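ugh ok fine here u go
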Amino acid sequence: MIAVNEYIIQEYLKYRKTDKDFDKNILQMFFQYYKPFVVSVKQLINIGYEKKTALLLYTNSEVFNKLSIRTSNIQNDTELIQDTKFKLMLTHNQDEYPYINILNDKINREFSATYNANEDRIKAKEHIKALVKDAKYINIVDSYLYENWNTNFNLLKEILSNNISIVIYSKYEDKLSSLDKDKLKKLKVFIQKIRNFNKNDISISKINIKDIHDRYIITDKIIIIITSGINYIEDKEKEFTYIVKSKN
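structure:
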C-alpha cells in the first residue's frame, strides 16, 4: 500500500471512468510504480467530490476496493503516508522524502535505489527510518557490524526506535580471537552502547552462515536488503543500494 498525490488520483479516476481527457504521460509513469494505494476523504474533496460522496466512499468501500484503492479519513498527508506500508507518496512534482517523483526519481518502481560514491543519501536514510518506525520487532543481519563501531552505533541510534525488540545478527564472535586489545575494547563498548540505548528486549546473536554478503533489516512488515555495509547509509565513500520488499 502506498499514498498518491491528488493530481495523480484525479487523472487515474478519469482514466477508470473512461474519460479521454486524462494526462496520458502521468498515467503511463504512474502505472510503472502502480501498487494498491490509499486515498483520503480530504483528497477526494479537493479533486471535486462532494463531501457527502467522499464520506460515502469511505464508509462503503466496495466501489474503490474493486480498483485496489483503500479509503481513509486521515486528513493530514504526512500521517496518511506513515499509515502505508512503504511510507511513500507518489507525486509528479516533489523529489524529497517522503515523495517519489514518478517522472524522475532516484527510487525506482521496485522501491529500490542506488547511490554512487559521494552522492547524498539523506532520502534513503529518511525512508529506512520511516519503514522501521512502527515495527513490532527489528532483526538486523550484518556479518560485519563489528566494523566501523562509531558510525554504525550513531546510525542505528538515529534510525531505530528504542522501545521495540531488536535482534542483531553478526559473526563478530568469530573474530574475537584475532582482534587486538584496542579493537576488542571498542567492540565491547559498541555492544554495551546498543544495549544501553534500547531499554526493551535486545540481543546480539552470532550468524552461523559464513558467506552472507548482503545486509538485511527485517521487520514484521518489510525486508530491507542492503548490498553493502549498513554504515554506507551514512558514509558516502562507496556505492550504496537498498531494496524494499513487502513480507506479504
